[in-house]
Give the backbone structure.
Amino acid sequence: MPEPVFKRILLKLSGEALAAGQGFGVDSDRVQEIAGELQEVHALGVQTAIVVGGGNFFRGVAEQAKEMDRVSADHMGMLATVINALALQDALEKHAVMTRVMSALEMNQVCEPFIRRRAIRHLEKERVVIFAGGTGNPYFSTDTAASLRAMEIKADVILKATKVDGIYDADPVVVKDAKMFDNISYLDILKKGLKVMDSTAISLCKDNNLPIVVFNLNRRGNIRRVVTGEKVGSLVSA
């Protein structure tokens, strides 16, 4: 078995990844598959933190939310991430992986509040930590939350799981001959306006020189391949 090249990772999962083909809600089979892959990575001794989005619930009400106050809508999105975090926690624990959910919004009956030192301690004790509730502030995406949490726990890399093979110069679903970048700088992403993560998240990674690997989650075993240093997806660095 190849050795991991990262000691501590932060995996960014979209809510849609948990919905799989359903497009809405949580597909339990898909969540179990993802948990199985994470268990393989955990078995390699890699300290794993996860930030999960809430699009699989929130996109469903996004039309109605257009009329809503932005702050209220963002709080609804944050609550959706907590639902996803609990679903993922349940799946991981079925794979015998000890897991903690830490939320930026306090809800003590459901999960722990996010306390940086406690999060690092959980990782050191070989628990998977799932960060829910975004940053706890409106106007910030879960991408920005992923960058922020990665800095706070001193992760070696952010792994951004998507449904395409990496970063392209155009949407590969729409444009047949879109070109994929093996390596790209933070600055180029910002200049070209590529929709990898939002500009706040990219700027945060750029300022702190934190690499991002963008890869396809739908190819079985890709998380392990990235962690063991195989050439998968696109690398964003300085």
Notes: The chain has a mean pLDDT of 93.
